[in-house]
From TrEMBL:
One of its GO terms (molecular function) is efflux transmembrane transporter activity. It comes from the Bacteria. This is TolC family protein. Residues 1-21 form the signal peptide.
Length: 438
C-alpha cells in the first residue's frame, strides 16, 4: 500500500481533537462567512435569559393581571355588610275635594332598609375568596416556574446546537483540506480515483451536516427570542457550558418536594375555596331578612301626622331552592378534588421516571467521557501512524475519524438531553431552580 504524505496525516490528526473527553467552554458559534446569519445577535447567559423571561413573558403577565379581580373579590367579601343599605324617598301631592273647593296637600316619606344574611354566608364568602386569592398567587408562582423551565430548556438547546455547529465547522474544514490534498495527490498519480471520490463525498457530507445544524440553530434561536419577547430580527446567542452536574438532592427529597410545590398548594387552596363556595350556596337557601325604617308626614296642614314605620320582610323559599348554584358548586368541588389527586399522583410518577432517566444519562455521559472518547482518540493516533507506515489506507483512516466525530456529537447530544431532563425533573418536583445553570 502506498505511503501517504505527512501533510495529509497531519490534517487528519486534527480530527482527534474533536473526540476529547471534556466539552470545552462554549464560545460563539464559528460559522463560515458565506453562511453566517445576518440577524442581530445578543449574547445571553442563562441568568440573563431567565430575568428577561420573567419581565416579558405574556403568559406570566396575563396570569398576574388576574390578581386585581381576586383582590377585589376578597375586599368585597370582607365588607362589614355584603348587601348595601337602600334609601328610599317619596313625595306625594294630593288634591282633596272640600266644601270650599279642592284642597291640595303635600306629603313626603323617607325610608332606610338593610338586608341581613342569616345562614353564615359572610364567613363562607370570606373563606372562599381568601382561598381563591391564595391559589392564584401559587398559580402565578407555578407559571413563573414553567416559564423559567421553558426558557432554560431552550437556552440549553441553543447552547448545544452552537457547540454542534462549532464541531461541524471544524470537521468541514478538515474534510475539505483532506479532499484538496487527496485531489492533488491523485493528479500526481499517488492516489486513486476512489480515494479522491471518498474524500470529496466526506467533505460534502460534512457541509450538509453543518447546514442542517445551522438551520436547527437558527430555529432554536428564533424560538428563544420569541420566548424572551426580543425585538424582531434579534437572535440571542447562548453562553455557558454543558455539563452533567446537578444540585445535591435525593429521590426522597424530590418526592417530598413534589407534594409541596406551588401547583399542589394551588390545587389545595382551590379545593378549600370550592368547599367554601358549596357551603355558601347551601346557606343561600336560608331566606335573607330585610329590616326597614320609614318616616313621613301625611294629612291636612292643620292636622298633619308624623308616621314612623318599622318593616320586616322575609322571602318564602317555596319554589326556588338554589339547586342550580348548589349543583354547580358541588361539580366544581368534585372536579378540583379529582384534579388534585391526579396531579399529585402524576407528579410523583414523573419525578420517579425522570430520576431514572437522569441516572441513565449520567452513566452514559460517564462512559463516553471516561471510556469511549479516550479510546477513539487513541485509535485516531494509532490509525494515523499506521497510515503513515502504509499499513492502512485513506478509507480506514476516514472511518476512524468519522467515529471520533460521531462520538463528539453523541456527547454533546447526551449533555443536552441531561440538562433538559434535569430541568424537567426539578420542575416536576417543584425544586428551586434559582442558581442551577448548565
Amino acid at each position: 500500500m502506498r505511503t501517504k504524505s505527512l501533510a495529509l496525516a497531519g490534517s487528519l490528526l486534527c480530527l482527534s481533537n474533536i473526540g476529547q473527553a471534556q466539552v470545552p467552554a462554549q464560545k460563539p458559534g464559528v460559522l463560515p462567512p458565506e453562511t453566517a446569519p445576518t440577524q442581530a445577535q445578543q449574547r445571553l447567559s442563562l441568568a440573563e435569559a431567565l430575568a428577561l423571561a420573567e419581565a416579558a413573558s405574556p403568559t406570566l403577565r396575563l396570569k398576574m393581571a388576574e390578581l386585581s379581580a381576586a383582590e377585589g373579590q376578597r375586599a368585597d367579601a370582607g365588607a362589614w355588610l355584603y348587601n348595601n343599605p337602600q334609601l328610599s324617598v317619596d313625595q306625594t301631592r294630593r288634591s282633596v275635594p272640600s266644601t270650599t273647593g279642592s284642597e291640595r296637600r303635600s306629603e313626603w316619606g323617607a325610608g332606610l332598609s338593610q338586608t341581613f344574611e342569616v345562614g353564615g354566608q359572610p364567613s363562607y364568602r370570606r373563606e372562599a375568596t381568601s382561598a381563591a386569592l391564595t391559589a392564584l398567587r401559587l398559580e402565578i408562582a407555578d407559571v413563573r416556574r414553567h416559564v423559567r423551565a421553558e426558557v432554560a430548556e431552550r437556552h440549553t438547546r441553543v447552547l448545544a446546537l452552537q457547540q454542534r455547529a462549532d464541531t461541524e465547522t471544524q470537521a468541514l474544514k478538515l474534510f475539505d483540506d483532506t479532499a484538496v490534498a487527496v485531489q492533488r495527490r491523485r493528479q500526481a498519480g499517488e492516489d486513486t480515483r476512489l480515494d479522491a471520490n471518498v474524500a470529496r463525498v466526506e467533505a460534502e457530507r460534512a457541509r450538509n451536516q453543518l447546514a442542517q445544524i445551522q438551520e436547527q440553530l437558527l430555529e432554536a434561536r428564533a424560538e428563544l427570542a420569541k420566548q424572551l419577547q426580543l425585538p424582531p430580527g434579534s437572535l440571542p446567542m447562548a453562553t455557558g457550558e454543558l455539563s452533567a452536574q446537578r444540585a445535591g438532592y435525593s429521590l426522597d427529597a424530590l418526592l417530598a418536594s413534589a407534594d409541596n410545590q406551588p401547583r399542589a398548594g394551588a390545587l389545595a387552596a382551590r379545593e378549600t375555596s370550592a368547599a367554601a363556595r358549596l357551603k355558601l350556596e347551601r346557606a343561600s337557601t336560608y331566606p335573607d331578612v330585610t329590616v326597614g325604617l320609614n318616616v313621613g308626614r301625611e294629612g291636612p296642614g292643620a292636622a298633619r301626622e308624623r308616621l314612623t314605620t318599622l318593616t320586616l320582610s322575609v322571602p318564602l323559599p317555596l319554589f326556588k331552592r338554589n339547586s342550580a348554584g348548589i349543583g354547580a358548586a358541588q361539580t366544581e368541588l368534585t372536579q378540583v378534588q379529582i384534579e388534585r389527586q391526579a396531579a399529585q399522583r402524576d407528579a410523583r410518577a414523573s419525578v420517579s421516571s425522570l430520576w431514572a432517566r437522569l441516572a441513565s444519562l449520567e452513566d452514559r455521559i460517564r462512559r463516553l467521557q471516561e471510556s469511549v472518547l479516550p479510546a477513539l482518540a487513541d485509535n485516531q493516533q494509532l490509525s494515523i501512524k499506521s497510515q503513515q507506515a502504509g499499513q492502512i489506507g485513506l478509507l480506514e483512516l476516514i472511518v476512524v475519524s468519522r467515529q471520533s466525530l460521531d462520538a463528539r456529537r453523541d456527547l454533546i447530544d447526551a449533555l443536552a438531553d441531561y440538562q433538559s431532563t434535569r430541568i424537567a425533573l426539578e420542575l416536576a418536583a417543584g425544586w428551586p431552580q434559582e442558581g442551577t445553570q448548565p
